[in-house]
Write a structure and sequence with these properties.
The protein is mostly helical. It is built from 12 helices and 9 strands.
């Protein structure tokens, strides 16, 4: 496959047409996973609340569709109550407010969005464990649960909220926290071969590492594909904001592992290290996210290296478009065959809103649009 704009332009048109159509039902709701062809809407406090408005802002940036803008702005306003409720907030503050408030501020210079995003950045910074050098992941799901020492690879994608806040305010404390967390990921999450741990556990009092957990991967030492995608994109973004070559090297290492383990159609299985008796479902969301990270990587490396990441990303996105796109059906999702949480049996082999978002972001980038909300 050659990298050219004809198919990417066609894909973008199909994305915009379909989102315009599905927005008539979803409006300012918060879709997460598709159930029998219809996106189930979650509460505004759910971690994926930013991806639908983020998708709307991607399209608005191109079309200036005021109806889609209105839905995205309404989603952002609904998140105000989530801040006031407080108890549902966790490390995914970045996912939620980068794709709503930061996106709107970058597009429209809206002061109220800037204020919301800075408040969110302060709340994210407050989850930083000074002793361990990590941003705490979740709050307890049960009364008897203690996950104060848990950090997860996903949080690399939340760090841009802190980098952005440091730039907007001139206060380096936000950046210091982001860098400390990224350094902890380099030390404890990223393996030499480029694969990653999903969950690393620390003693919340001393900061010492005490173990690892499998999380959404098959096993603690397996190769959860979306975790690798978070590492590719998250490390590339940390390099973008800091210029630290260690983050660039880490992103490249994770990208090489990802590309080397792709199946023939270039869309990953949900875990790269599965025993033969476990169903190797695809995770289209991991492919879409990794492709976005590789496109950013291609802009950061030397000219001789860039084609590896550019063409790797384009191959993934092209396969998602041709082989996984739900263009001629009643299915509301854009991209089929995502896997959210196989060990829990949750949302397996279905479209996922974050897969749709990253697919649209990647196609938008292939079509020459350079604005990044992250």
């Amino acid at each position: 496959m050659t990298l050219q704009t004809e198919w990417a332009g066609e894909a973008w048109k199909k994305i915009t047409n379909k989102v315009k159509r599905t927005s008539a039902r979803i409006k300012d709701g918060f879709p997460h996973a598709s159930v029998e062809g219809v996106y189930k809407l979650e509460l505004a406090s759910w971690w994926t609340a930013g991806f639908w408005p983020g998708l709307l802002w991607l399209i608005y940036n191109d079309t200036k569709d005021e109806e889609l803008r209105g839905y995205a702005e309404s989603c952002e306003r609904q998140l105000d109550q989530v801040i006031l409720d407080y108890y549902r907030l966790d490390h995914d503050i970045g996912f939620m407010w980068i794709l709503t408030s930061v996106a709107r501020y970058k597009l429209l210079s809206a002061e109220d969005s800037k204020r919301r995003a800075l408040l969110a950045a302060n709340l994210l910074a407050a989850r930083f464990n000074v002793q361990g050098g990590y941003i705490r992941a979740w709050n307890p799901w049960r009364e008897d649960e203690d996950n104060r020492g848990w950090a997860i690879i996903d949080c690399m994608m939340n760090l841009p909220l802190l980098y952005w806040a440091a730039g907007e305010t001139g206060d380096p404390r936000f950046k210091h926290i982001a860098v400390r967390h990224a350094d902890t990921v380099l030390e404890h999450f990223l393996r030499p071969d480029g694969s990653v741990y999903h969950i690393v556990v620390f003693d919340p009092e001393t900061g010492e590492k005490t173990g690892v957990e499998s999380g959404q991967g098959y096993a603690a030492e397996s190769g959860w594909s979306r975790g690798t995608a978070w590492a590719i994109y998250g490390m590339a973004l940390s390099y973008r904001y800091t210029g630290d070559e260690r983050y660039l090297d880490a992103a490249k290492r994770a990208a090489h592992f990802f590309l080397a383990n792709l199946p023939e159609d270039r869309v990953p299985h949900w875990d790269f290290r599965l025993p033969e008796d476990v169903t190797a479902y695809r995770d289209s969301s991991a492919g879409a996210c990794a492709a976005c990270g590789m496109l950013l990587l291609s802009e950061q490396v030397s000219g001789s290296e860039a084609p590896l990441y550019t063409y790797g990303a384009a191959e993934i996105l092209h396969s998602l478009y041709v082989n996984y796109g739900a263009w001629d059906s009643e299915e509301e999702g854009l991209v089929l065959h995502g896997t959210s949480h196989y060990p829990n049996g949750t949302n397996v082999d279905v479209p996922l809103i974050y897969g749709d978002y990253y697919f649209a972001e990647g196609i938008s980038r292939l079509n020459g649009r350079q604005l990044l909300f992250w």
